From TrEMBL:
It comes from Nocardia tenerifensis. It catalyses: ATP + protein L-histidine = ADP + protein N-phospho-L-histidine. The chain crosses the membrane at residues 66-84, 96-124, 144-165. It is an enzyme of class 2 (transferase). The keyword Kinase applies. Its EC number is 2.7.13.3. Residues 190-255 form the Signal transduction histidine kinase subgroup 3 dimerisation and phosphoacceptor domain. Keywords: ATP-binding, Kinase, Membrane, Nucleotide-binding, Phosphoprotein, Transferase, Transmembrane, Transmembrane helix, Two-component regulatory system. It holds the Pfam family HisKA_3. GO terms for molecular function: ATP binding; phosphorelay sensor kinase activity; protein dimerization activity. This is histidine kinase. InterPro entries: HATPase_C_sf, Sensor_HK_TwoCompSys, Sig_transdc_His_kin_sub3_dim/P.
Length: 404
């Protein structure tokens, strides 16, 4: 938008300077034509300003309507050549200023007018000058051929200027379209960023709400039938809300991923995920070997999101099953999230997604790898390996995509 405003102001300033120059040229032509008219033509003093204006002022139409300006100048030139007698010592049927005005206006017609008008103006001007300028014993044949060639060069130069101006306008238009496309892409990338944030935050905690509501009757003693029904209602409402959120995320998601500039989770925040799942009633146990503080921000963000998604998947698809997490920090950060077989059939809490694919994308973005699959005992395991010696940035992690 700012570039468009600057471009409009630049065009307006250019037009103002062009108009000012045109007025200055017309005034110069007029101040030259009026005092010298009595030298070239025998006209009354009262008529001289009018004839000088016909010779000079049609130039003022060079930008607004060059074809009309040319018609006025050519018509007045023919009238002056045929009806106004010139001085005996003058061989020019019209003033030099008038001829210069015709040249300028013909050039403007070649730049601005349509091709048929350009052809008419070129032929008519050639005939006008070719016939009138040879009246005083000149060679009519050479005059008839000479003027079309000279005026044709003027027309060709005008067409060249026209082509250059059109090319420049097309370039400006392409730049404006590129700017619009860039703005549209930024909007799509912002939607993708919002979709990732909504999934990583809302979907994770909503899944825990569903699990907590489903397991509350088994964890809390003395639950009455009314309380059990209330827990069932809470779980159903949370599942419905989660489905609606994921439907909205499907609209917001796009292939383009934008880098984020807000503070992001790090490796030291991973234990908070375990504690939150434990508070939500998930049967989880974890071990951490090594110092999480040594994990770079990029790898730490990938580790956090992979752990978050792994716990969410385990809670959704294997409720009440125990979850074991092994996290070891060395030259390579190794994460193993394993859940056992569930004794009950898991209720669907979503309409499917791209959780494993998203975790794999995050691992690959930081030079690591991730495998996930079922175990022989009916459980499920996620195994991620993230190297610490990869020189990656936070933006590259985010560009790698998110879960679901």
């Amino acid at each position: 938008m700012k570039q468009q405003i600057r471009a409009q102001r630049k065009r307006m300033n250019g037009r103002m300077w062009f108009d000012a120059t045109t007025v200055l040229v017309a005034l110069i032509f007029f101040t030259v034509a009026w005092p010298t008219l009595h030298v070239t033509h025998a006209v009354p003093i009262a008529v001289q300003p009018f004839l000088a204006a016909l010779a000079a002022f049609p130039v003022l139409l060079v930008r607004v309507n060059p074809a009309l300006g040319w018609a006025i100048s050519a018509g007045s030139g023919m009238l002056i050549s045929l009806a106004i007698p010139h001085q005996p010592n003058n061989d020019m049927p019209m003033q030099v200023v008038h001829i210069l005005s015709l040249f300028v206006l013909l050039l403007a017609v070649a730049v601005r007018a349509t091709v048929p008008i350009i052809g008419v103006a070129w032929i008519a001007t050639s005939l006008l000058l070719g016939t009138t300028m040879s009246n005083e014993g000149g060679d009519l044949a050479s005059s008839v051929w000479g003027w079309p060639i000279a005026l044709g060069a003027v027309v060709l130069f005008g067409l060249l200027v026209r082509w250059l101006l059109q090319s420049r306008r097309q370039l400006v238009q392409q730049e404006e379209e590129t700017e619009v496309e860039r703005a549209r892409r930024a909007i799509l990338e912002e939607k993708a960023r919002i979709a990732r944030d909504l999934h990583d935050v809302v979907a994770h905690h909503m899944s825990l709400v569903v699990v907590q509501a489903q397991t509350a009757p088994y964890r809390v003693e003395g639950v009455t039938p009314a309380a059990r029904a209330e827990f069932e209602s809470i779980g159903a409402t949370a599942r419905e809300a989660l489905n609606e959120i994921r439907g909205m995320l499907g609209v917001l998601r796009s292939d383009g991923q934008a880098p984020e500039h807000t503070p992001q989770p790090k490796a030291v925040d991973v234990p908070g995920l375990f504690e939150g799942a434990l508070r939500a009633g998930v049967r989880i146990a974890w071990t951490i070997d090594g110092q999480l503080e040594t994990v770079p921000d990029g790898a730490g963000l990938a580790l956090y999101r992979i752990t978050q998604e792994s716990l969410s998947n385990a809670s959704r698809h294997a409720p009440e099953a125990p979850i074991q997490v092994h996290l070891r920090v060395g030259p390579i950060v190794e994460l193993i999230v394993r859940n056992g077989a569930t004794a009950t059939v898991a209720r669907p809490v979503g309409n499917g997604g791209h959780g494993i694919a998203g975790m794999q994308a995050r691992a690959v973005a930081v030079g690591g790898e991730l495998t996930a699959g079922p175990l022989e005992d009916g459980g499920f395991e996620v195994h991620a390996r993230i190297p610490l010696n990869m020189s990656v940035t936070l933006d590259s992690v985010l560009l790698g995509g998110a879960g679901n």
